[in-house]
Automatic annotation (TrEMBL):
Annotated keywords: Initiation factor, Protein biosynthesis
Domain Sporulation initiation factor Spo0A C-terminal: 17-105
Organism: Candidatus Faecalibacterium gallistercoris
One annotated GO biological process: regulation of sporulation resulting in formation of a cellular spore
Taxonomic path: Bacteria, Bacillati, Bacillota, Clostridia, Eubacteriales
Name of the protein in its database record: Sporulation initiation factor Spo0A C-terminal domain-containing protein
GO cellular component: cytoplasm
Length: 115
């Protein structure tokens, strides 16, 4: 399982503003889905509502902040997003798709890492 630091490192090429609460919402969402992948099928109830309860806000606020961060990431570094996905993208993925992509991303290992 990826640590919080590893997820932030994966997101670094997007040049996101780390003070933006949406970035931490995205990281929490990725960690929850990575922990239990089936949560992606009940994203509002099992991810957004869990984060909202911790932050004392609505699940819609969490969803909105995650979508805004996603749009910012897409505009800053589309190429890195395609690297995470593994193929060219015609449009920005949905929030659910991006959370799932990040939760399941395994960096390609170099020959030196394998040794």
């Amino acid at each position: 399982m990826k640590s919080e630091c590893e997820i932030y490192e994966m997101l670094r090429p997007f040049r996101l503003k780390w003070k933006n609460i949406g970035v931490s919402d995205l990281v929490c969402a990725v960690m929850l889905v990575e922990e239990k992948p089936e949560r992606i099928h009940a994203l509002h109830k099992e991810v957004y509502m869990v984060i909202a309860a911790e932050r004392c806000c609505t699940w819609r606020a969490i969803e909105t902040s995650v979508r805004r961060v996603l749009e910012e990431a897409w505009s800053h570094n589309r190429r890195h997003m395609e690297t995470l996905v593994g193929y060219p993208l015609d449009s920005c993925p949905t929030a659910a798709e991006f959370i799932y992509i990040c939760a399941n991303y395994v960096p390609k290992r170099s020959a030196e890492d394998i040794k």
